[in-house]
Amino acid sequence: MTAITWLVALVIAPSMVMCTLDQLSTDCVKSNKYLQGYTATCAACPANSVSIPSGLGCECQSTAFTSSSTLFEFTPSCTPCASDQVVRLDGRGCIKCPASLSTSSTPPCACAGADEIVVDTQPDGSPYAERQCVACQSGLRPMTLSGALYPTACIPCGDPTMATVTGMPCRCPSGFVDISGTCINNILASGFQLSTSDKSVDIQDVARPFESFLLASTLQLALIGCIETDGVNQTACNQLANLCVVSLYDDTSRACREHTSLYINSDSTPFSDYQSWLDNNPFILFEDEDVELSQSIACFHFDSTRARGWICLRR
User: Which of 38, 73, 233, 264 is most buried, judged by most C-beta within 10 A?
Assistant: First the structure.
């Protein structure tokens, strides 16, 4: 009996210890402390620092920079910045916030212009006397790196016709609308508006359709590129075919309806016969009588509660 009890305790103990440590680290964070591993107790973070979310260490406050630390040091030494300063972007010191900006903004000392980036160091790497706000050139927009607080680089707009207008970057010319980073004529775009159902996927046995981010962000542009050019834009037509797949081959979905209509209704070159379609557009779903088998493709028949037909792929 004793041996059995000891074995059970041996199995349960690690999970109990882990649960206890998790709870301890959570309790430490609540009191702005960190879990000291070798004592399994909460210890106070050094001056000008706060506990990290995991509770396993500390980090400098947003108003202080790391003046010393080592690879395995969980409690860095933090030096506070003066009231008119903020931590530099490289985290190696403080820089003065100019009078035109505010240290109490969120984030502190942020540039006001939508077309501006933050610059703290000169081209040679030495810091400026105070933070600089530099406007991106027309045709470029500010970019904020993942996890960063400020935009620090200028990157090209999605469309070469975009420009900065009254301080707002990447604006389409008058008479055009921005659709997923591409400038499209207002009149043309108005003919390809999307309804809520167009952007949704209907899954069998699910109570209601759900909106797809991919459909919402790419379908309209794919429709314009493929339908408006009668299928000549192969990239757009391939994307439209892929969006039909995303719609689970639902022949009532906007993506599948529009793609199939190209084959059924058009007499233009890309769809005038089987070979021209094969050369220009992807096969995704057709009724049995529309499929002409060929050595250049492989076709697979399917019969489901939603639709019946063939899926044809290039070899």
Answer: 233
